[in-house]
Specification:
By secondary structure, this protein is α+β, with helices and mostly antiparallel strands. Helices cover about 25% and strands about 30% of the residues. It has a 4-stranded mixed sheet with strand order 1-4-2-3, covered by helices on one side.
């Protein structure tokens, strides 16, 4: 079995569930669906840009949310808006067969506030970056 490590930086973070992230508290199910789909597509694009090989037999994920300001945030309010579309992107894109624990494990999920952000590749949707997400994937292949 071989192992490959990929690190991607997304120049933004999803909204917390308190702000409607992950489709929670959405006024209509369609809004929730679009939000989840947007993040799933974002992850799929980032995986392709990173050149991730498909057909993993196992994937360990470590996510760090980084924020420029020091506002208080509840880490757990970000877990679902990040992990659900991330896991679904791995399956939908053919990187993983399934997102059950046998195939997909979250090793770490943390937050940093009041930090200097790295210089991610330009994002045409966002001029001023206030947050970023660093996703480290340890992929195992047969």
């Amino acid at each position: 079995m071989t192992t490959e490590t990929y690190v991607i930086t997304v120049p933004e973070t999803p909204k917390s569930v308190n702000q409607g992230g992950g489709g929670v508290r959405a006024a209509h199910w369609g809004v929730a669906f679009k939000e989840k789909e947007r993040w799933q597509q974002t992850f799929m694009q980032e995986f392709m840009v990173a050149g991730m090989d498909k057909d993993m037999v196992h994937c360990k994920v470590d996510v760090t949310l980084r924020f420029k300001n020091r506002n208080r945030r509840d880490l757990e309010n970000y877990r679902h808006p990040v992990m659900k579309p991330l896991a679904d992107a791995l399956v939908a894109g053919g990187w993983l067969q399934d997102d059950t624990e046998e195939w997909f494990v979250v090793e770490g999920f943390r937050m940093e506030s009041g930090v200097e952000l790295s210089m991610p590749r330009p994002n045409p949707r966002q001029v001023y970056t206030k947050s970023e997400m660093i996703v480290k994937l340890e992929a195992s292949y047969a």
